Amino acid sequence: MAPLELPGLTLSPWKLDVGTARFDLEFHLWEQAQGLSGLWDKPREGLSGFVAYSTELFEPATITRMIGHFQTLLEGIVTNPEQKIAELPILGAAERQQLLVEWNQTQVEYNRDVCIHDL
């Protein structure tokens, strides 16, 4: 995944082998200094973390998609912190297009001279 850049916040993947997950799904997040910002030579804060999950329940692609949803949620919070949580976005543009448009194209031509139970 490409690092997520937000004003004052940068997210990037970090692999950490924790062995066996204690729960079905674990999100571990913490703030930590990321070094100097360069412009004013001030320490910059960042969000670090990892996801531990049961490989019997989740595929790596599912976890990657969840992390993408979390990043989209964080972007929405940073963009509009006053927005109600129920109104924050969770799907990225491509996934929203697939779900609402592509998968929703269910129109099919059928013979209108036949009763519904025959179809």
Explain what you see:
It is a single chain. By secondary structure, this protein is α+β, with helices and mostly antiparallel strands. Strands 1-2 form a two-stranded antiparallel ribbon. The chain has a two-stranded antiparallel ribbon with strand order 3-4. Residues 36-40 have low confidence and may be disordered. It is built from two helices and four strands. 24% of the residues lie in helices and 24% in strands. Strand 3 and strand 4 (43-53) form a beta hairpin. It has helices at residues 60-79, 93-100; strands at 4-6, 9-11, 25-36, 43-53.
Essential attributes:
4 strands, 119 residues, two-stranded antiparallel ribbon, 2 helices
Mean pLDDT across every amino acid position: 81
Q: Using DSSP, what is the number of strands?
A: 4
Widest sheet, order of strands: 1-2
The oligomeric state of the chains shown is single chain
Order of helices and strands: EEEEHH
Fraction of residues in H or I helices:
10-25%
Termini separation (Å)? Answer: 46 Å
Number of helices: 2
Proportion of residues in extended strands: 15-25%
User: Which of globular, elongated, flat, extended, rod-shaped describes the shape?
Assistant: elongated
Q: Give the helix/strand class.
A: alpha+beta
In short:
This protein is an alpha+beta fold and 119 residues long.
Q: Helix and strand layout, with pairings?
A:
Elements lengths: L3 E3 L2 E3 L13 E12 L6 E11 L6 H20 L13 H8 L19
Antiparallel strand pairs: 1-2, 3-4
